[in-house]
Design a protein that fits this description.
Elements lengths: L3 H11 L3 H15 L3 H10 L10 E5 L9 H16 L6 H4 L1 E5 L5 H14 L4 E3 L6 H11 L3 E5 L8 E8 L9 H10 L12 H6 L3 E3 L4 H10 L13 E4 L6 H10 L5 E3 L25 H10 L3 E5 L6 E6 L7 E3 L2 H15 L6 E6 L5 H8 L3 E5 L3 H15 L2 E7 L3 E4 L8 H17 L4 H12 L1 E10 L2 H17 L4 E2 L2 E8 L4 E4 L4 E3 L8 E5 L4 E6 L5 E10 L7 H23 L2
Parallel strand pairs: 2-3, 2-4, 3-6, 7-8, 7-9, 12-13, 12-14
Antiparallel strand pairs: 1-5, 4-5, 9-10, 10-11, 14-15, 16-23, 17-18, 18-19, 18-21, 19-20, 21-22, 22-23
Helix pairs in contact: 1-2, 2-3, 4-6, 4-8, 11-16, 13-14, 13-16, 13-17
């Protein structure tokens, strides 16, 4: 078995990139002298290859097999190309691969490295002509008829990260069996300097590299406009938008301009792509302080709505001015935006008995209550937008459904089949349209949320994350999940358990003992359906050493009682349910 120093020496010998070679060589020399800090750093860089997980790779930029660097990109692309060449239906040498990249550090370099490898394998590429939002790349895959897509992005991760997201030819992020097959091919790839690579310039000269066609972006923008439901409303009212140093400013502003929103103000300090993200501690619009510059600009221009994208523009955040309260703006939760958009599309958009709406299972059940009341087919998927997109396509194909809307509580939304992934651009347009329509009637989104709650139930959500680090922590998480499976509960505090769904086993057991099969793919998730439309979900995190527990409580708003009373009742009930669950789980 090779030692840490030996693994590092082997990697160094095969790293074709001068910068990371120098970085690793310096670190290795320090470790050889007994420097404990350098040794620990080296160990973190060689804990094993980056896992080809949910949709690809994501990690800290730097030298080593456990970091994001050119060597890792070369081997990963070789594995992807090998897998596609082995699938006759992919027809990858004809259809090619669409590639996009965002404004993070080394995104362009990683994209160019991928192009050179694919060309050496005889696989053509079509590359975005500049930085590219993730939803545009996802759209490009289907528009161009590509066999697959690569998006170089780390979404809303901190500045030190980058990633490599893979799409299948249907425009959605990869799911089994393709993710497992690609991962296996990557594991079998040669050392980075032995990966065939003609280089970026030669790929272009050979004709195996083309730019995205000039009509792709206009076609996408036209298609986004076609999603609009109502053309009226107060479209001259001031709106603030921030790209958070990502790649959204140009296309979001163009989308809003085309739709007649004539008073959109961009946060200038955050408008241009900058992989250092200098004005925010964390480039995620949900993080504290991320919207501070937006709030300041909103006061200057008297805006009542703030829209924010994450750096690759697949997520959307919204903050709305509220008349009362200590703070002038309230940032809406992902569930609130999802419910507002879903209700708007289902009540104001095209009608029909074949419509379908989807949400991740950890999102609020409120959209499900709305959909069922409107006669719309509704399902929940595993966490991750790849499941929403692929389930939508499956329902379209096998059941003749018309996909209307999908969302997950982590600020991800998609409208119709245009983009088979989260799309912060179309979501921004539709939310602004909804807001402008309410404003023209002298109403607010808070009024709309109250109307929805009175009609379909007041839903309150919370999340408990229990961190358990290291091997002992992982064992403890597994023990808790095992205990929950082995000891079913009949109630948690005031809430009776109506059914327990064990997604890993693929079964749903009702309180009377009857069982039914689940349509969800196997995953380590437990879902407790509680009386009155409330529920609990428990699952280990897929990316962190945490056990995550989600609580959703539904209360009926009685007559004309104040919404605050129903919310207080729901919050009190949730606290009692959560306390009982923690005791039962041994937490």
């Amino acid at each position: 078995m090779t030692t840490l120093l030996e693994r590092a020496e082997i990697w160094l010998a095969h790293d074709p990139e001068a910068g990371t070679r120098a970085e690793l060589r310096a670190l290795l020399e320090r470790a050889k002298t007994g420097d404990t800090v350098a040794t620990q750093d080296l160990a973190e860089r060689f804990v094993g290859p980056l896992e080809f997980g949910t949709a690809g790779l994501r990690g800290v930029i730097g030298a080593g097999e456990s970091r994001m660097n050119v060597a890792v990109i070369l081997r990963t692309t070789f594995g992807l190309g090998t897998y596609l060449l082995g699938d006759p239906e992919a027809n990858v040498k004809v259809r090619g691969i669409a590639i996009g990249y965002d404004g993070r550090r080394f995104s362009r370099e990683f994209a160019e490295a991928a192009v050179g490898v694919l060309a050496a394998m005889g696989i053509p590429s079509q590359l975005s002509q500049g930085v590219c939002p993730t939803p545009v790349l996802a759209y490009a895959v289907t528009r161009l008829g590509s066999a697959a897509g690569i998006m170089v992005t780390a979404s809303h991760n901190p500045p030190e990260y980058n990633g490599y997201k893979v799409y299948w030819g249907n425009g959605a992020q990869i799911i089994p069996p393709h993710d497992k097959g690609i991962a296996a091919a990557v594991d079998g790839a040669p050392h980075a300097d032995l990966v065939p690579n003609v280089g970026f310039e030669q790929a272009r000269k050979s004709g195996l590299l083309q730019d995205f066609p000039s009509d792709l972006e206009p076609a996408y923008l036209d298609a986004v406009q076609a999603l609009s439901i109502n053309k009226g409303g107060a479209r001259d009212a001031a709106i603030v938008y921030t790209a958070l140093h990502g790649v959204g400013d140009r296309l979001v502003r163009e989308t809003m301009k085309r739709a007649g929103f004539s008073n959109v103000h961009s946060v200038a300090q955050q408008a241009e792509p900058d992989g250092e993200f200098p004005t925010v501690a964390f480039p995620n619009p949900e993080e504290k302080g991320a919207l501070d510059l937006s709030y300041a600009l909103a006061e200057q221009v008297s805006a009542d709505l703030i829209l924010a994208s994450d750096p690759d523009v697949d997520r959307l955040a919204a903050a709305v001015r509220k008349a009362n309260g200590d703070k002038p703006f309230t940032q809406l939760t992902g569930n609130q935006v999802g419910v507002l958009l879903g209700h708007y599309l289902l009540t104001e958009g095209a009608k029909g008995d074949n419509r379908v709406a989807l949400a991740s299972c950890v999102s609020s059940p409120q959209l499900g209550a709305i959909a069922r009341a409107l006669g719309v087919h509704y399902e929940e998927t595993l966490t991750g937008f790849k499941w929403i997109a692929n389930r939508a396509m499956e329902l379209e194909k096998t059941a003749g459904k018309s996909f209307v809307f999908g969302y997950e509580e982590a600020l991800g939304y998609t409208v119709g089949p245009l983009v088979r992934d989260k799309d912060g651009i179309s979501a921004a347009l539709l939310f602004a349209e909804l807001w402008a329509g309410l404003r023209a009637k002298g109403q607010t989104v808070f009024d709309e949320l109250e109307r929805i709650a009175r009609a379909y139930g007041c839903f309150v959500s919370s999340q408990l994350s229990v961190t358990m680090k290291g091997a002992d922590g992982l064992k403890k998480i597994q023990e808790v999940m095992g205990h929950l499976r082995a000891t079913p509960a009949s109630a948690f505090g005031p809430a009776e358990v109506l059914a327990l769904s064990d997604v890993k086993a693929g079964t749903k057991r009702a309180a009377d003992g009857s069982e039914s099969k689940l349509v969800l793919p196997p995953s380590d998730v437990l879902i407790y359906d509680l009386v009155g439309g409330s529920r609990i979900i428990a699952r280990p995190s897929g990316t962190e050493p945490k056990l995550k527990i989600y609580f959703d409580v539904r209360e009926t708003v009685v007559g004309d009682e104040a919404m605050s009373a129903a919310e207080a009742r729901a919050t009190e009930r949730m606290a009692a349910i959560a306390a009982a669950f923690k005791i039962h789980a041994g937490l």
